Amino acid sequence: MQKLVIITVTIVLGVFLSIKHGEKLFDKPVPQNSISKAYNNYCLGCHNDKKSSFVNRIWLFGNSREDVIKSIKNGRVAHGMPSFNDGLSDKVIEGMADYILGLQKMVPLSEKGHLAGADGIEHSEVLKFKVDTVVSGLDVPWGLEFLPNGDLLISERKGELLRFTTSGVLSMIKGLPAIKASGQGGLLDLELHPDYENNGWLYFAFSSPNRDDDNLANTAIMRARLKGNELVDKELVFKAFPETEKRHHYGCKLEFDKEGYLYFSVGDRGNRDRHPQYLDNDCGKIHRIHDDGSIPVDNPFVQTDGARPGIYSYGHRNPQGVCMHPETGLIWTDEHGPKGGDEINVIEAGKNYGWPVISFGINYNGTVFTTDTAKAGMEQPLHYWVPSIAPCGMTFVTGDRYPDWKNNILTGSLRFEYLHRCVLKDNKVVHEEKLLQNVGRVRNVEMSPDGFIYVAIEKPGKILKLTPVD
Questions:
Q1: Which stretches of 325-459 are assigned E, i.e. beta strand?
Q2: Is 235:221 a contact under the CB 8 Å cutoff?
Q3: Suppose 63 and one of 59, 107, 260, 304 were both cysteines; which one would form an S-S bond, judging by CB atoms 3.0 to 4.6 Å apart?
Q4: Residue 365 in contact with residue 410, Cβ under 8 Å?
Q5: CATH 2.120.10.30 region(s) of the chain?
């Protein structure tokens, strides 16, 4: 571990010094093997962790050499891809374009499922469990929520809400609002009202397009009731301001606390330098509202002139895990950092969590945007990861089925394709373990009412169930 930290610091320092002195990374003649290393370093974090990401790819902006060079060099900012012109030389950019176009011609590999141990059982450090696929044939399953009768609701990012019944029937639920399913946007998280059995309210987050200009959108939350396989009594309880043409960093995870407040995340929406540190917008924030969308009178910025009243904390980048500690009732989040610096935070009213003024990461293109990792008045993360694991989804292990994991945090790793377990002591991460390695991009993890762990994997999408064994 010490060696890894030294290597990471050396790389970051080297990048910083080269940028500081006006020299692009790899500005000198580059050996061919460095092109593949650059691809692994700069591309795979967002474009999956497999070279097959570019096999038989559907290209949004053209697939000629010139098109690919232009995309790498200038970026596609509205879709979340930065410009690499400041961090990489023209030679490396051209080499990466040739490398990517070469991957495009590869024959797609047949899908290989996750491989368990030789006995078919997964062996964690402290318990054994088997893995069963309970739902398959999905695309990018985002939200998971269990109904009282045991049926599983699944949100597909492409804008579909599905019901998987206890008898194994998968059906589509009708009545969704207009959804801007583009880039990182679409139908996002799901959450039942704490008193669902009496009031029937289902909450869901989605990227909501502007009624007059479909190019603009932002994160919204709606509640509705289920009547058979149709949504009825729909009410919009939140819509983030301002709307933007960018297609990334929407958030959005939902969580009710023990007092019935609804907490949720809204990402910075790609406007790093303006949104997170200013209170006149909803982006780069954790919000708290009542179940009907009204604002709690004790929210920290209700009396602040010009502030958006739903804001509970600010200075966030793109939290895609929000959950409540089962014993303390505190709200915890995991958050996508830039290239390095993914975080776990405990959310407190009115606190500033620092993005982008302080960070343990650098830009995706290798350039440095801040050298500060701490500053007065800004919270330190409870835990952070360098390199980034791209955390997504987050839950505490509850109940008695996994006794040696109880109150541990589980979060998915999109970047490295595993389920991450964090052991806590006195609100500190004291141990970590990788589970289900190479299982695929883990988009979400959820505890079922009967105490089992369910894991959502994307592309190809499926839902896994983890069952402890003796």
A1: 331-336, 342-346, 383-385, 391-396, 409-413, 418-425, 428-435, 441-447, 453-458
A2: no
A3: 59
A4: no
A5: 122-469
Q: The whole model's pTM is what?
A: 0.80
Is 275 designated active site?
no
Q: Which is nearest to 397 in space by CA: 452, 457, 436?
A: 452
For residues 322 and 191, give the distance between their C-alpha atoms in angstroms, rounded to a whole number: 11
| Angle formed at CA 49 by CA 46 and CA 55, multiple of 5 degrees | 90
Q: Six-digit token pair at 361?
A: 């990461």
Q: What is the mean pLDDT of residues 116-130?
A: 85
Architecture of the domain whose range is 2-104? Orthogonal Bundle (1.10)
Q: Are 191 and 203 in contact (CB under 8 A)?
A: yes
SS3 163: strand
The C-alpha atoms of residue 302 and residue 314 are separated, in whole angstroms, by 14
Containing H/E element for 3?
helix 2-20
Specify the domain boundaries for CATH 1.10.760.10 within the chain.
2-104
Per-residue pLDDT band for 460 (boundaries 50, 70, 90) equals: confident
Question: Which segments of 228-370 are extended strands (E)?
Answer: 230-239, 254-256, 262-266, 285-289, 311-314, 318-324, 331-336, 342-346
Please, is 361 exposed, middle or buried when counting C-beta atoms within 10 Å of its C-beta (0-12, 13-18, 19+)? buried
What is the C-alpha to C-alpha distance for residues 401 and 74, in angstroms, rounded to an integer? Answer: 51
Whose tokens are 């999408």? That residue is 461
Catalytic choice (193, 249, 287, 316) = 249
By residue count, the chain amounts to: 470
Class of 122-469 per CATH? mainly beta
Would you give the DSSP letter of residue 78? G
Helix, strand or coil, per DSSP, at residue 415 = coil
Going 199 to 204 to 205 to 207, the CA torsion angle's sign is negative
Phi, psi of 161 (to 5 degrees): -115, 125
Q: Which tens digit of pLDDT belongs to each residue from 280-308?
A: 999 999 999 999 999 999 999 999 999 99
